[in-house]
Design goal:
With 734 residues, the protein is α+β, with helices and mostly antiparallel strands. It is built from 24 helices and 31 strands. The protein binds zinc ion (4 copies). The site of one zinc ion has 7 residues, from loops. Its EC number is 2.7.1.107. Residues 371-505 form the DAGKc domain.
Length: 734
């Protein structure tokens, strides 16, 4: 869309944000100087000229040398055609517009921002917004919409209608209470007034430095980027340039949502020159001569690659290609305000009254997915697995719509969950370690979702027992993500048990470490196993360089497990604790234990199976377990236990006794796979009489004498990967 006069460019905006980051000034401080301080001289009514505006920037950005092109571009942006007649004539801008703009870019609580804007536009300070003041607000909203490239002609009548709705009591003017209520519940006021910056597709490429294994040609100057030389490639559209050509590159074509009603519903191909990596045309199947010049076109959504000449024979409609089941095309995301009036009312009616104002900002965009697809909500922990996490993040941004892909370090899981909340049929993919998965599951618990979506895992880093049990492997090693997404499409749902753990300490002088989690997803243990994990944890913090590969991790475990000193605290564990299984005491008298482990999943510490293999379970595992479980909630009979197979969805836990540190070392290195099977049960209570090492899901701590109660919490739908080609290594899923 052609930009109107007075728009600031993406690079200007980026520069402005840099200045704002470094400045400590607030708009309200600057306004004081205008109102009754040293800068009052610049005021002409509520307006200021360019000189006054420059002073404003100087104070606000705490910079004496704001580049002239930047302040001029900003100044012009406040003088768009919608501004008041006389200010345009006299080359002035309204101070309240300027203040509103900047204050909304500032951080702060939404309710404070709303109140601030109300006061800004209540120019006669009578505590209500009359119709002319409301008109000014609409003008400001139009300016923001223009900046976001929305179709402004559609917007004006909608905004007028909306402002009428805000006047709740029909008095013809808007009170502060009405304004705040509207901002909280009905109208995305903050978005419209203030550049909800996450809504801006700013036309900037997302550059990555890249060396190319074959000759490629610069999208700008079309000459070759030498073999093995470094160029820049846009992560979103695969536009490629020489370093020195980046400044002059055309804007990025990738638009992440529909900005006009006509773009809602049907997705068109978005062609970018070059990027034909396969060298073959998807239309005519003939070769594309990519080695000699910048040729061919590729679509940034379906990733088809075609000859320039084949373009005329292609239809417009884009089906998003092989990964369409996962993709939210831009045509399926659009600003809520562009929804028809009736739809908006339905939307409003379905909203619960909420005190959480920040919610409203996330309803700025609506999702209406392509029918029969399962849009994927991707969470990436870029810190997991070394550089792998970051790579996965930007690969998914290319494969899917960047609005589906969330960086957990930046915003955590909440914004993504809120954005997808009402999307039918969506799935979640968590890219990270078991700890990251636990974090997401906990957030889902708390989010109170109308429908809990199934969760798949792309394991990053080491020791991913949960991912392993769900057949997503122990750690991602650069495999093709497209293929993994295809696997995900075929995956099945299991309802994984989750367990509450309550630790009630006895009153002692001694101090405990804090208990790391209240929920068990994987396993819990007391004694020697936890002690090993504890030392391991401390050593890892101390000597990270020794723990940089999975193999080395195993060796360290072995070393700790076999060293003499560690199991002295846990020796004859059965004398310092008692165990109750579903209310009945468990007899430990014939054992000499150094640890007890409680398993929800059969894999521990990167693939060890403490429960051990069950000899050839014939038939349906669920059936077998149900048959056993129906008769008894608790199984302690050793003969029956021999036939039991772990199942992470049977609402039962497996309890295993660990009889020696040497043995533990063997378990970690897979020389030996099992502990002593004690029970299968649905509830377990421990009483301990001395300080012991414990761990939940691999997080160790030292715990003073206490009572620990483990009970079933809920089940979470998890996606299980396709079965491996070889036979099952152990038990149910692994
Ligand atoms: Zn781009
Ligand atoms: Zn170039
Ligand atoms: Zn396409
Ligand atoms: Zn062709």
């Amino acid at each position: 869309m052609a930009k109107e006069r007075g728009q600031i460019s993406p690079s200007d905006f980026a520069q402005l944000q840099k200045y704002m980051e470094y400045s400590t000034q607030k708009v309200s401080d600057v306004l004081k100087l205008f109102e009754d301080g040293e800068m009052a001289e610049y005021l002409q009514g509520d307006a200021i000229g360019y000189k006054g505006f420059q002073e404003f920037l100087k104070v606000y950005l705490e910079a004496d040398n704001v580049p002239n092109h930047l302040s001029l571009a900003l100044f012009e942006s406040f003088k768009t055609g919608h501004c008041l007649e006389d200010t345009v004539k006299n080359d002035l801008v309204c101070l309240s517009d300027v203040s509103c703009y900047f204050s909304l870019l500032e951080g702060g609580r939404p309710e404070d921002k709303l109140e601030f804007t109300f006061k800004l536009y209540d120019t006669d300070r009578n505590g209500i917004l009359d119709s002319s003041e409301v008109d000014r607000i609409i003008i400001q909203m139009m300016r923001v919409a223009e900046y976001l490239d929305w179709d402004v002609s559609e917007l004006r009548p909608i905004l007028q209608e909306m402002m009428k709705e805000i006047d709740y009591d029909g008095s013809g003017s808007v009170s502060l209470a009405e304004w705040l209520r509207a901002g909280a519940t009905t109208v995305p006021l903050l978005v419209l007034l203030g550049l909800e910056m996450t809504l801006k597709d700013n036309g900037q490429h997302m550059w990555r430095p890249k060396r190319f294994p074959r000759p490629v040609y610069c999208n700008l100057c079309e000459s070759s980027i030498g073999l093995g030389k470094q160029g820049l490639s846009c992560n979103l559209c695969k536009y490629v340039v020489h370093d020195q050509c980046a400044m002059k590159a055309l804007p990025c074509e990738v638009s992440t949502y529909a900005k006009s009603r006509k773009d809602i519903g049907v997705q068109s191909h978005v062609w970018v020159r070059g990027g034909c990596e396969s060298g073959r045309c998807d239309r005519c199947q003939k070769k594309i001569r990519i080695y000699h010049s910048l040729v061919g076109l590729h679509c940034v959504w379906c990733h088809l690659e075609i000859h320039d000449d084949c373009l005329q024979t292609m239809g417009h409609e884009c089906d998003c290609g092989l990964l369409r089941d996962h993709i939210l095309p831009p045509s399926s995301i659009y600003p809520s305000v562009l929804a028809s009036g009736q739809e908006r009312k339905i939307n409003k009616a379905s909203q619960k009254t909420t005190d959480d104002l920040s919610l409203s900002t996330f309803e700025a965009l609506r999702i209406d997915p392509v029918s029969n697809t399962h849009p994927l909500l991707v969470f990436v922990n870029p810190k997991s697995g070394g550089k792998q996490g970051e790579r996965v993040l930007w690969k998914f941004q290319y494969l899917l719509n960047p609005r589906q892909v969330f960086n957990l370090l930046k915003d955590g899981p909440e914004p993504g969950l809120r954005f997808f909340r009402d999307v039918p049929g969506y799935r979640i993919l968590v890219c990270g370690g078991d700890g990251t998965v636990g974090w997401i599951l906990e957030t889902i618990d708390k989010a109170n979702l109308p429908v809990v979506p199934p969760v798949a895992v792309l394991p990053l880093g080491t020791g991913n027992d949960l991912a392993r049990c769900l057949r997503w492997g122990g750690g991602y090693e650069g495999q093709n993500l497209g293929k993994i997404l295809k696997d995900l499409e075929m995956s099945k749902v299991v309802h994984m048990d989750r367990w509450s753990v309550e630790v009630i300490p006895q009153q002692t002088e001694e101090k405990s470490d804090p208990v790391p989690f209240q929920i068990i997803n994987n396993y819990f243990s007391i004694g020697v196993d936890a002690s090993i994990a504890h030392r391991f944890h401390i050593m890892r913090e101390k000597y990270p360089e020794k723990f940089n590969s999975r193999m080395k991790n195993k060796l360290w475990y072995f070393e700790f497990a076999t060293s003499e000193s560690i199991f002295s605290t846990c020796k004859r564990l059965e004398e310092s604790l008692t165990v109750e299984i579903c209310g009945k005491p468990l007899d430990l008298s014939n054992l000499s234990l150094e640890g007890i482990a409680v398993l929800n999943i059969p894999s521990m510490h990167g693939g060890s199976n403490l429960w051990g293999d069950t000899k050839k379970p014939h038939g349906d595992i669920h059936g077998i377990n149900q048959a056993l479980g129906a008769a008894a909630k608790v199984i302690t009979d050793p003969d029956i236990l021999k036939t039991c197979v772990p199942d992470l969805s049977d609402k039962r836990l497996e309890v295993v006794g660990l009889e020696g540190a040497i043995e533990m070392g063997q378990i970690y290195t897979k020389l030996k796979n099992a502990g002593h099977r004690l029970a299968k049960c649905s509830e377990i209570t421990f009483h301990t009489t001395k300080t012991l090492p414990m761990q939940i899901d691999g997080e160790p701590w030292m715990q003073t004498p206490c009572t620990i109660k483990i009970t079933h919490k809920n089940q979470m739908p998890m996606l299980v990967g396709p079965p491996p080609r070889s036979s099952n290594f152990f038990g149910f899923l692994c």
